[in-house]
Amino acid sequence: MTSYLLSGPPGEPVSLAEAKAYLRVEDDAEDGLVETLIGAARLHVEGVTGRALMAQTWRLVADAWPADRVIALAVGPLIALQKIVCYGADGETHEIALAQIRRETAVSPARLFLPRMIAGAPGLRERGGIEIDYVAGHGEDPGDVPADLRQAILALVAYWFEHRDAVIVAGSGAVIPSGFDRVLAPYRRVRL
Hints:
Shape: elongated
Radius of gyration: 20 Å
Structural class: alpha+beta
Number of strands: 8
Distance between the termini: 19 Å
Number of helices: 4
Largest sheet: 5 strands, antiparallel
Strand content: 15-25%
Helix content: 25-40%
């Protein structure tokens, strides 16, 4: 299964004004840099946690239905399941009724449970026969993002702002501040 970002978040979970206040920067000379650091920090936090912080639309593409009838979504938390489209061996598209799909959002990653018989599902083409579009994130408002994840973004922005000229030599430095991993620990995916 492969996931693609269809549309990014409506904004950042931390505003330029919040970041500048955190950095104690009063002029506008480095606004571009601070905005870039905010975006990079959000992407870093999302990559480490496997979570979309702000609402984003994703597409999961699969070749076949899983044998255990459980689909783990690559990015969470799940806000909404938008549509499931299947491509038949003849290339025809078939939209699957979402009412037959059970969602479990209390776990990370969110999971979709398929019925034994999926109504409206054709015999699938060999590659990319299933497309699942969904919205993931904590919400559309920055206030919906947990405070500790917003704090992690601010900490990264500050660290990168202060250490922008540092060159990382193998084993001699870090691109993240000390203690950063502990802030994200509750949100990390554990793979067994």
